[in-house]
Each structure stands twice: as C-alpha cells, then as structure tokens.
C-alpha cells in the first residue's frame, strides 16, 4: 500500500497547486528518511481505503496461466527435484506480494501491458522470475568475459518465434479427439465434364497467379525495400542489461542472448523497457520511452524512475549529488533516534533451480547435439562442435540468390584443428572459383590458394607468407600459357617475373612438367630500385625473348629525367653453321642512352654485358622450371591433404589422442605382463624334489628328511658355484690387467700419445670392473650363510614337511 499512499499524496499536492519540483523532492526525501515522512503524511480514512480495496479487487489481471512451453513429452518431470514441483512458504509469500504489486501497477498504469512476474515452470508451478536466476561460478576461463560467455549462451539457445508476438506466452494446443462414429459424406452427383472444365479453369488461374507472383518477386527484388511493420514497437523481446561500475565496465550496454552481440543503450533498435529483474529484485521502468532507450537513466536506486518491488537490504541506493546530500536535516534524525519503525522489508528467497553444471564435453559441444542451423534472409548459417566432423568443419555460411534459398551463390566454410592449417574455404558457385585460406605453419608456407581445378597448368593463384620463404615469393599466378610471380625483400631486388609458354611438343610418352616441360617463349623480370647503383646502370626491367633470340633492357629513370635508358641485344649462337666463332659486332647491340657514356659504346663492354645476360637468362629459365615443379608439388600435396584431412589433437586431450591412448595401454599391458612374469619366476623351491615322488602320496619321516637334505645341498652347491663364478671373473680381469701392464712396460718407449691414452682408459675400466667384482664376492660371502639359514628355517616351517616338526618337537 506504500505506492497507493504516495499516489494519494501526489494528487493532494496537485490540488493544492504545489510545484512539481517540491513533489519530486518529497518522494526523494521519503526514500532517504522514511520515518520522518510517515509522521508528516496525511493518513487515509477508512472509507478511502475500502474504496481502493474494492477497486483493486475488481481489477482482472491476466495471469500467465497459458505460459508453459514445456510438456511431459519433452521433459521427464519425475526426475526433477522437489523445488520444481512445489513452492516453499517464502515463495508462496513472494507470489502474494507479486500479485498485490501487479494489482497496484494495473490500477496506477492501466494503459501499460501486464507485468511478467510469475510464469509457470516445467511442472506447471508458478515461479517468480527472479528466483529462476542462480549465479554460478564455472571453472572455464572463457566464461569470465562477457563476449565469450554471451557467444557460448547464444550457441546453446535456439530462437523460436512466439505464436503471439505481443505476449510472452505460449498457448497449449488442445488435441481434437477423433469420434468413433462419423456421418458418411453424400454421394457426388456432379458432372465429370464440368469437373474437368473446372480443373482446367483452376489450372489457368494458378498459372496466371504464378506469373503475377513471379513478376511481383522480380519487382521486389529490384526494389529490395522492406515492408512497413504493422507490429513495430509492440513485439515482446528480452535481453541482458550490463550496468557499468563493477569489473571495470565503463558504460551500460545491452547483450542479445540469441546472437551474443552487444549493443549500446543508444541503439535505435531497442524501443523501450517495461521491467528489469535480477536474482535479488524486480524493477518497473517509470520513465517515458518516446525517444527509445536513449534518454533512460539506469539508476535503479531512484524510485521515481525505477519502481522496485521488494524493499530489502539488497536494494540499490540512489546516487545523490553533494547539493542534495547537504540539504538533509540531521536534527530530525536525532529526534527520532529512539523510535522504532515497523520493518516491512522482504528479501528474495533462494533460487529453486539446480546449480548449473557443464561438463567439459558439453562445454566443447556447445550447440545441442553438436550442431546448430540458423536461417537468415537469403543465407543459412550452420555450426558444429570441434572434432564433430572428420574434416574439422566448424561453421558454414551459405548465401542464396532467391528468397526460397534454392540457388546457391557462395559458400564459406570455417575449419579448426586442421593439420594442413586450413582455416577458411570460399566457394563461388557462379564462377566455380574456390579459395582456401591457411594459417601460419603450412609445409609450403601457403596463405591463400585460389583455383577452379586441382589439375596442373590451369588457373591457379597462390599466395605465400613471405617471411616463411627464403626466396621472398609472396604470390604466384599460373594459367595454361603464363606464370607470374611477385617477390619482396630479395637481395637482388627482383620484384616481378612473368613467363610465357608455347605449345608443348607432343611425345609418345606421358608428358609432364618434369619430363616434357612447356617451352618458354618469353621471360619478363622487373626489379626494385637499388640505391647503391646509379639509375642509368640499375636495370628496372629485362625481357628475354627466347624464341626471337633477343634481350631487352630498360633502366630506372632518374628523378631529374623524364625518360629512361634502354638497350637491346641480339643474342646469336657462339658459332655459326660452319663451326666458325661469331665475333661481337656493333649491330648486335641497340641502345638508347639519356646521357651517353664512352665506356658503354665499346664492344668489350657490350660483349661482357651480353654474356652476363646469357647466364642470367639460363638461370631465369631454370628458376621458371623449378617454379613449375613446385606448383605440381603443391597441387599434389593439397590433393593428399584434402583426401586425408587429418586433424591435430593436443597431447593433453587423452580422449581423442589415439597415439597417446595406445601408448598408455601398451605401457599398462607391459607392466601387467612383467608382474605376471615376476609371479611366475617365484617358483616353489620344493617343486623339483616333490616331482620325484608319486603325486598325492603322504611323505614319511624318512622322505621328509631326505627332501630337506637334498634341497639344502642343492642350494649350498648353487651358492658355491656363484662364488666360484665371481672368483673366476675376478682372477681373469686381474690377469688381463697384469698382461696389459707388462705390455706397456715393454713398449713404453715406442708408444704414441694415442696408444698411451688407450692404455690409460683400459686400465681405468679394468680397475673399475675388478673393484666391482671384489665387492660382489665379499657381499656374497657375507650373505651366503644367512641365505642358507633362512632356507633351512623355511623348510622346517613348510607344512608339506610336517614330519620334520615331529622329529624336533
């Protein structure tokens, strides 16, 4: 009733023609100092309260009784906790408070839509909206930031339009029960000829309608104008509001939960806000949204702008300025210090939903069943979980030409965890052009590959990561008759190479670029400016006309010149048809020089230049041939990668890493076999002696004594043999060392430093072996008697030799 009392006070103040500023100050003062204001308020009479109560009881509020979107067919209600099926006393009290709050709101704001307070849950039990929220801290760092968290939630959600876009309710459709007895339809007495004529007429009408529809679609395609929305501003939608202040959020912004995108509060697409709620409280927007949400002030502690439902300790405080704070009178606080006021606060009950638990598998799967399809206008977006597809496909965007989404224009596919570092594949269905984009790390340093077919000597455009290549190649374009390469950062300043090919000479064998290369007709090379050379000596472009046996040079142009020098050489063979050596003549070099120099006119200079160009031409032809082979190698590698589409798996992913799993299982199998082998090696010390006796026969006293003596005698002999073996090895090592020392004494004078080093190394190793053998022999002598006594004690205690115990009893 607090809101009603405030309303009455405002009406009385309006009748007394008081200023609106003072009325607003009165409401603010009431919030900050509720005790004093209640003392000064005008109390309502009993008749006024009865009239208001009568009016409130007559108000019919549409309750979300038809809201349940879940049915028993989709969710097993029997497995849900009790909190889903019943309400606690605190929740029942909260629902009563919400009903009272909703009635007051409908009375004060009859023109506004009803509040969305307590819809029905899966079990058709009304639950307050704030109690459906349960803050949970998840163990995934990706969910700590709003952008990655919003994207994760949007992948899980699938937007389904409401049947009624004006109400946040979903009506349950009642199934029509089929009747057991039905009336048989009357007989058809129409003329067959008339029916056929009617069918033809209907077909003509449909053909005419299809024609008109096609013309209308073409007109709409050309205009491409959106129709005016009759329900603009009336549709119901929900989104997330993030307030500034905490976690270094600089300003308020919205998040659309279905797309995961963020929007400013000034965005024109958000037309208004009816209410806000979180897990602590519920607020109603009392501000005018005539300018969308641009002018809204999101100070939830201001009851004038945001009317709260629960007056609890978690209510946001009003942000006051220094002037407002200074105007508060502290004397009234001293006067009412000893007075107690009735506590009408009510805290939000605990959430009734279970704590959110997301397994690592579900977190990685994201979309329901690992796949999600979103349909747009002339486009379709498909998403998959990582490793769901064997080729690593995680997303595909298909663009269509028509509204029915039948004619495909282009396809974009995104990949992850590919061993060939493929990241994006772009397919243009109109031109049939395919473009592959790669990340860093491809064996051939590929960055982009555009092609129509993987066949060699067709149209290919290949771009490389220049920092990963030694030759500085950044791009290569190949057609059936040409090959163009672009370079950057080379020490010879080469920037461009273009090769023209002629028709291949036909051979009987299978022709290829390696066995039967395409004949080169022309090679054009361009160079960057070399600051270390003069411009008139720095070649900017050279053209090797292989078929015409000519070489053309063009030099760089100086800054103060308008043209550049040129030179052309007629390349002839070094010998003629008769075998005579051809001499350099002036007509074999045609030059144009901006500033002629004497040394360039000499035949020796021209001859040396031509011989240098011949070597360069040979080198350029070889490099073009190597480029052809590299293209073949790249195409072959790409075909193998597309056929295999191997995925990379982290060594920490024990579930998918088959190699690690197989290695772990092999290690476990080896350890198990070793354990079995150790168990088998621990044989029975009496087994060889008991095998000499008939099976199942009870041992006599004489047989037990004989078995004991034989077992001890055998064990004693084994200990002696082991001692003799160690002693023999010790004596052998000692004798060999003495022989080596005697040999060294005899040949000490004639030994080389290498022989002395070998002798010292042998002595060191021999002494180490002798020392180890001596320690083993001494230890064996110490432990042999103890082992003998231990075996003798075991034999006395062995239950199979029970007769021995009777003898010594």
TrEMBL record:
One of its GO terms (biological process) is flagellated sperm motility. Residues 236-309 form the CEP76/DRC7 peptidase-like domain. GO terms for cellular component: cytoskeleton; motile cilium. Residues 1-27, 321-345 are annotated as: Disordered. Residues 368-650 form the Dynein regulatory complex subunit 7 MORN domain. Keywords: Coiled coil, Cytoplasm, Cytoskeleton. Residues 321-335 have a biased composition (Acidic residues). Residues 199-227 form a coiled coil. Residues 697-804 form the Dynein regulatory complex subunit 7 C-terminal domain. InterPro entries: CEPT76/DRC7_peptidase-like_dom (IPR056290), DRC7/lobo (IPR033551), DRC7_C (IPR056292), MORN_DRC7 (IPR056291). The keyword Glycoprotein does not apply. Residues 17-27, 336-345 have a biased composition (Basic and acidic residues). It is found in: Cytoplasm, Cytoskeleton. This is Dynein regulatory complex subunit 7. It comes from Colobus angolensis palliatus.
